[in-house]
Amino acid sequence: MKKILITGAKGMLGQDLCPLLKQNGYQVIETDVDNLNITNFNQSEYVIKYYNPDFVVHCAAYTNVDMAEQDPKTAFLINAQGTENIAKICADKDIPIIYISTDYVFNGEACEPYLPTDERSPLGIYGQSKADGEIAIEKYCKKYYIVRTSWLYGHKGKNFVETIIDLAQKMPELKVVNDQIGCPTWTVDLAEFILSLIKEKKPYGIYQFCGSGKTSWHEFACEALNLLEIATKIKPCTSDEFPRPAKRPNYSVMDNAGACQHWKESLKKYIEMRG
Q: Within its chain, how far is the Cα of 47 from the centroid?
């Protein structure tokens, strides 16, 4: 039985990925900051050496985009240095690694979907820290998959869909930005893609996995409420009306090579599974 070690197993993606791997016959070693602090090289090396996994899926990350601007030291410590630690250990042990990255490695100035080969040009601290993580993986590892995803939502964590549903049940009207365009991604879809990378032994390199099609946050919110038949009015607005510490890419659509179903299909399934 192959062993898969997951960092950040208690996160939104990890909580969907771990049971899926177990269902497919893998022995899953679930780690999180309480038993594997990726910023501590010696501890990370000890844990990975002790379990000697056949694969490492590196989900652990600092993901608070706005807080990263105020606390860049922590963001780089976790996303860049922490990832470099895991990369060095996996390279030394010849363990293939899957690194979960983000659309924020791009600046959003494109007019057509980003390709995996497009140059990294992050806007803020979070994007730069994740880009540095990608660079560390490429520098130290020969057997790696970098998987960029975007606008992630899932049943086991705080996410945009649940925030909108919660607000819509309390307020008669909401404003949501309509000038940021991207690809919503369901954690269940992403977990299944990660499983396929492990099972099918696809060529190593950079992959982009996100919901097919594209949308704005406004349209995404409207679609979620329509599926739930919630009548709250959602008005479109600009990003300038809701200034945030971290600038978001205006256009972060990624070319996923047809790897995922349309974002509306995934959202529909997500809503149906809410119970």
A: 24
Segment 194-222, tens digit of pLDDT: 999 999 989 999 999 999 999 999 999 99
Beta bridge pairs of residue 149? 102
Which of 126, 140, 153, 207 is catalytic? The answer is: 126
* CB distance 20 to 196 below 8 Å: no
Per-chain mean pLDDT for the chain: 96
Contacts for 13 with CB less than 8 Å, ≥ 6 apart: 59, 100, 152, 154, 187, 190, 191
Residue 126 falls in the annotated catalytic set: yes
Q: Which of 124, 126, 132 is nearest to 85 (CA)?
A: 132
pLDDT at 275: 67
Instruction: Provide the token pair at 120.
Output: 């990294």
User: Residue 193 in 3-state DSSP?
Assistant: helix
Other CB atoms within a 10 A radius of the CB of residue 107 amount to 19
Q: CA 236, CA 178: separation in Å to the nearest integer? A: 6
As a CATH number, domain 3-159+183-213+254-260 is: 3.40.50.720
pLDDT digits (tens, 9 = 90+) for 78-96: 999 999 999 999 999 999 9
Structure tokens at 45: 């090396």
